[in-house]
Each structure stands twice: as structure tokens, then as C-alpha cells.
Design goal:
Helix content: 25-40%
Strand content: 5-15%
Number of helices: 7
Number of domains: 1
Shape: elongated
Strand order of the largest sheet: 2-3-1-4-5
Structural class: alpha/beta
Order of helices and strands: HEHEEHEHEHHH
CATH class: Alpha Beta
Radius of gyration: 20 Å
Number of strands: 5
Oligomer: single chain
Amino acid sequence: MTETQSPRPTTDGILAECPRFRVLVVGRSGVGKSSLINHAFGIDLATVAHGRRGKCNIEDEIISEHNAYFVLHDSMGFEPGNTKEFETAKEFFRSRGKRVPLKDRVHAIWLCIKVPHAGSRVFETGDEEFLKLAATAKVPVVVVFTQFDILYSGIEMVLTDEEMKLPADQLRRLCSERAENEFEKICLPPLQKYRPCTPTCADFRPRSEQQSRPPCFSRSYQNYSESPGRHR
């Protein structure tokens, strides 16, 4: 190196070896993976199925024009009693491990979980197996809880007549607090045992509505104001 040359920035070296951060998006069928991709990355390539089974090829690379440093792989949703799609996602993840160049590896997993209702489980068997698989491979997992607005709407449906007389802003705040409390009671305890292998997750709601939460936590990207509530 000559006197006129400066040390090459570390980021240049990293980007030369690995120009994009590769994310595998997995979850049960109908959980909202495609909607999440559309909303978070502004990508229209993912078809929003609105509760129906979306079609995708896990090998396809999805790159947003807004941020070319990320590449996504959208897996088919896991179906109860059908292990084919789960095995396909698992094999894809294993094939993108340490045996391939860094640029081709899966660098993180987005595990989409629908906020449970009516006493259903938070994590199904496939979700738990993917968490364990990622932990063994030392790949970070972002757990994204989706469809929080359904929980919020359920809170609205049981408001008393007196509570319904509150001003709109107070009513929204009341429902938000109750939905948050219900969410923490239902979803956080099962998540805590996976905490060592799960990093801090993003909250995709407007910053004004975000609150501090413990590590390994993410709520739905959906905004409270999008809920088809009784107060609207």
C-alpha cells in the first residue's frame, strides 16, 4: 500500500464477498407472509392471497427496487397434515448453509406466526422445528406475529355500552392497551424459551405507536388504524 492509498473500508470487503443479505420467509399457510413482504419491502412480486394458499417458488430471488442489499425467498405456507412444503423449506435452508459461499447462504429467517385466537397454540410443530433447526445452524430468527388487528377487533367487540360512549381517541387507546396485554399474556411466554437464538425484531407499525419491548419480540406490521373497528 502506497502512502497515498487509504485502508479499504471494511464494508467494501464485506459487500464484495456478500453483496446481499438473504432472508428466508417461512410460516403456516394463510399467516400473511406475502402481505408482510409487500408492506415491509414495497414488493409487488408476492401475490397477496387474503387467507388463501399463495403460490411461490422458494428458489426465486425477490429483490426490492427500494433496497437492493436484501434478497428474499418466500416459501409455500405449511399445511396441517401435509409435510411436503415444510420439507421443501427445510431442505432449501440446509442447502444454503456453510457449505456454500457466504453470498449464497441464508443469513436470517423470518418466521411468521399468526396471533392465536380461541385457545389455539402459538407455535405449531413446524414452527418449533424451524426454530430448533435455525438455532443448531446459528442462523438468527425474526419471529413476526401477524394479524394482530384481529385480536384488536375482538377486544372492540366486547366493549361495554359505557365504554362505547368514550371519545374516539380514548376508545382506541383503551382497546390498544387491552390488546397489548392480551398479546403479551398469550404470545410472549411460549416465545421466551427460544430467546437465546432469537434477535431483537422489528416493529413495522408507525414509530408513534411503537413501545419498548423485550428482545426476540415483534408484532404484526398491521396498523391499529387499519382495524375495521366499531369506533370507525
